[in-house]
């Protein structure tokens, strides 16, 4: 065995709505792999650069889009799983691109980057999955998992299994505790909110079977991109004419604004049909100044640029009472302020749904709230203050612990990958 290293045979892959990670257990090395310029997160974004006829990913994709290159930006790819869009296609630089192929491009790129970072190939992986890809539809949920498995096979994985994302985060947190804890894992991702109530302890780490330690799982299809959407509708889209009136006193159709506020439907507003419709709407609009901004935004295909500004404001409002937005691509010199109160009001119903899901999970587990020791927050959207306040109020005796908001799941999946598939030695 001299000169050889022992590593986990399989990797863990967290394919997220907003960001993705990959990890593998290796002696003397960090678990998460550097996927882009040494950073362990790869934004789940693809940009088809029409000027250079090439495809780029992650931060580079966002950068080229914001630099003004002609092309097509695609984000929130995970939202395709379980949706009716998955068997459809879209037009990219004049060519038809099936959505399944789009998923394959991104997951294949993740595999390639993980292998480059680890210096070895991977043909086996544990993928994370939300508790529910689709709410209240087991058949669609099962189909979403099959689609992800088929996509992984298409890009070269020979064996794939799945673990619920909050369970993976639990296994990562378990590495750091000194005594037994009853833990509520709160994973608020880009597309889903997932929860697990788990009994964790240092002496349980090596156990292959953990079924008895899992008291309850739950989830709801609400996440950070939904928070973006409702902040956009409440705080930004009125600047473009949302809820303004036509001359007959009817509202300007809301579908344009909902599509622009939703990451994976932004491109729907760029068709010739929509442009023709908007010209008709403009002629009848009472407030043409606002519709001018909408038309300019669509003409520039700047919907993703606006969505990024909204996302930045949401993040700022997690630690500040106000956030200033510079919206000069809509109108030169346009500045707009959004407030924490405005944000809280816009997402109040979403947070109530999340709160009800957590309450139901605790009731189903047959556990008293006073018995829960810890709330472990993970996921890039778990820092929203209103959300944390509501969940903390449900479990007043539990201490709040913040994990690696973007890395806990990927690291936990790597732990699970070694547990399931063992280790191999390399020269």
Describe what this molecule looks like in 3D.
The protein has 427 residues and is α+β, with helices and mostly antiparallel strands. It has a domain of 120 residues. Helices cover 39% and strands 22% of the residues. The strands form 6 sheets. The protein has a 5-stranded mixed β-sheet. A 5-stranded mixed β-sheet has the order 14-13-12-17-18, with helices on both faces. Strands 6-5-7 form a 3-stranded antiparallel β-sheet, with helices on one face. Helix 3 links the parallel strand 10 and strand 11.
Structural class estimated from helices and strands: alpha+beta
| Annotation field: number of helices | 12
Question: Low-confidence spans: pLDDT under 50, at least 5 residues?
Answer: none
Distance between the termini: 9 Å
How much beta, percentage-wise? 15-25%
Whole-number mean pLDDT: 93
- Count every beta strand, where a strand is a DSSP E run of 2 or more residues: 19
Biggest sheet, in brief?
A: 5 strands, mixed
**What is the share of helical residues?**
25-40%
Compute the gyration radius: what is it? 23 Å
Shape estimate: globular
Widest sheet, order of strands:
4-3-2-10-11
């Amino acid at each position: 065995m001299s000169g050889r290293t022992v590593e986990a045979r399989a990797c863990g892959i967290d394919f997220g709505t907003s960001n993705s990670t990959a990890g593998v257990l290796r002696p003397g090395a960090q678990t998460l792999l550097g996927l882009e310029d040494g950073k362990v997160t790869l934004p789940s974004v693809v940009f088809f650069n029409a000027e250079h006829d090439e495809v780029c990913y992650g931060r580079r994709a966002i950068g080229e889009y914001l630099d003004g290159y002609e092309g097509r930006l695609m984000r929130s790819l995970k939202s395709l799983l379980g949706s009716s869009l998955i068997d459809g296609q879209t037009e990219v630089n004049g060519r038809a691109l099936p959505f399944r192929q789009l998923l394959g491009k991104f997951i294949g790129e993740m595999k390639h980057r993980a292998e480059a970072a680890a210096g070895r190939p991977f043909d086996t992986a544990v993928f994370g999955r939300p508790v529910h890809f689709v709410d209240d539809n087991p058949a669609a949920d099962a189909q979403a998992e099959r689609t992800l498995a088929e996509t992984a096979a298409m890009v070269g994985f020979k064996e794939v299994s799945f673990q619920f994302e909050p369970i993976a985060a639990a296994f990562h947190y378990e590495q750091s505790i000194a005594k037994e804890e009853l833990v509520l894992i709160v994973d608020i991702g880009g597309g889903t909110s997932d929860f697990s109530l788990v009994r964790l302890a240092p002496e349980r780490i090596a156990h292959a079977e953990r079924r008895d330690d899992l008291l309850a799982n739950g989830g709801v299809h609400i996440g950070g991109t939904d928070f973006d959407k409702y902040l956009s509708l409440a705080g930004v889209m009125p600047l473009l004419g949302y809820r303004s009136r036509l001359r007959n006193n009817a509202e300007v159709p809301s579908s344009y604004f909902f599509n622009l506020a939703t990451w994976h439907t932004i491109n729907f507003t760029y068709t010739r049909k929509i442009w023709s419709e908007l010209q008709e709407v403009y002629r009848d609009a009472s407030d043409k100044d606002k519709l001018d901004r909408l038309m300019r935004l669509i003409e520039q295909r700047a919907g993703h640029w606006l969505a990024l500004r909204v996302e930045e404001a949401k993040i700022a409002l997690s630690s500040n009472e106000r956030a200033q937005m510079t919206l000069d691509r809509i109108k030169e010199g346009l500045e707009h302020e959004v407030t924490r109160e405005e944000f809280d009001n816009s997402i109040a119903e979403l947070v109530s749904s999340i709160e009800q899901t957590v309450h139901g999970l605790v009731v189903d587990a047959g556990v008293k709230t006073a018995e829960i020791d810890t709330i472990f927050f993970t996921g890039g959207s778990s820092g929203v203050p209103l959300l944390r306040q509501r969940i903390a109020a449900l479990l007043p005796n539990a201490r709040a612990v913040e994990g690696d908001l973007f890395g806990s799941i990927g690291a936990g999946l790597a732990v699970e990958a070694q547990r399931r598939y063992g280790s191999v030695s390399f020269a």
